[in-house]
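F.,

This is the one I mentioned.
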């Protein structure tokens, strides 16, 4: 079976069009893969929040002028720790399974929900290790950026205290420019270290320790192009998800809840269900676009032939089909 995509390098609009067409053609499969992880993760989150009484705690804090006590702070910290753990594991499983299924379809091969999760099961620890290394890099860079920002703010404050209006304006301008520079630098670091991590592990079967070097090799010389592509995909998806969620949430909050006199905890639960469903349907599109960008980058840099990979016994075995 021949590869399902054009081997010629694609523009960003080509990637988005192809991602939309691929998602539309395999909506049930991709949405089902996302739901297998998203639904249990949501239920775990609800159980933990109910066990810790997070909703009642949030309601009490919002209706009181007093700061939360130590027990409330501890409960909130425990909840966020458990939520972050569940979210991280869910992301690894979901993105890995989606990438496996999407790559199979890009290569013109059959894919199923069960084969996608068999594939990610074999690659889980490598994938988790790779993303853990990325997290270490992000934390190190964020720490260095925070120190730099602190120095800049300190200099700006000193300049403001020593001068008049001109000094204040200069300090504010310097602070704004420094903030923008740090934000751009962090975005570029994210592109250089993480855009194709899941694809590298799932498709190339690389160990975690090689992933960052391979990621850099793919992104080198194309960082700005990839940054624009990733920003377009991410911001476009976020805008669509945010707009849809805001519309649904407004309908619930101002029409449905008041008419039915829904308790506060039920309101929060209903809103979170809507948010989970919308996010669950958006995630496959994002993963599809990033996987197509990965293949496009290999075509551009390595003269990569999708038809060769589609016939590869190594890929057949790694896909679990």
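My design for it:
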């Amino acid at each position: 079976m021949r590869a399902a995509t054009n081997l010629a390098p694609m523009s960003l609009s080509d990637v988005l069009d192809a991602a939309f067409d691929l998602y539309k053609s395999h909506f049930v499969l991709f949405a089902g893969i996302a739901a297998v992880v998203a639904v249990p993760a949501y239920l775990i989150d609800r159980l933990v929040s109910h066990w810790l009484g997070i909703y009642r705690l949030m309601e009490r804090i919002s209706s009181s002028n007093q700061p939360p006590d130590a027990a409330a702070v501890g409960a909130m910290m425990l909840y966020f720790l458990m939520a972050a753990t569940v979210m991280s594991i869910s992301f690894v499983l979901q993105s890995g399974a989606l990438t496996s299924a999407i790559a199979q379809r890009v290569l013109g091969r059959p894919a199923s929900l069960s084969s996608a999760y068999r594939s990610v099961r074999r690659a889980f620890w490598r994938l988790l290790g790779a993303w853990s290394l990325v997290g270490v890099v992000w934390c190190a860079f964020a720490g260095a950026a925070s120190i730099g920002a602190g120095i800049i703010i300190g200099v700006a404050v000193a300049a403001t205290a020593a001068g008049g209006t001109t000094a204040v304006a200069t300090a504010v301008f310097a602070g704004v420019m420094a903030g923008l520079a740090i934000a751009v630098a962090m975005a570029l670091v994210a592109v250089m270290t993480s855009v194709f991590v899941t694809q590298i592990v799932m498709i190339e079967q690389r160990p975690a320790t090689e992933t960052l070097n391979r990621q850099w090799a793919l992104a080198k010389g194309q960082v700005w192009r990839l940054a624009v592509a990733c920003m377009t995909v991410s911001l476009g998806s976020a805008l669509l998800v945010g707009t849809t969620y805001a519309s649904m949430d407004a309908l619930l909050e101002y029409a449905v809840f008041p008419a039915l006199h829904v308790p506060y905890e039920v309101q929060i639960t209903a809103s979170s269900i809507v948010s989970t469903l919308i996010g669950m349907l958006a995630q496959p599109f994002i993963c599809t676009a990033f996987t197509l960008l990965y293949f496009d980058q290999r075509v551009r840099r390595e003269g990569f032939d999708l038809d060769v990979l589609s016939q590869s016994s190594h890929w057949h075995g790694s896909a679990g089909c």
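The mean pLDDT is 80.

Talk soon.
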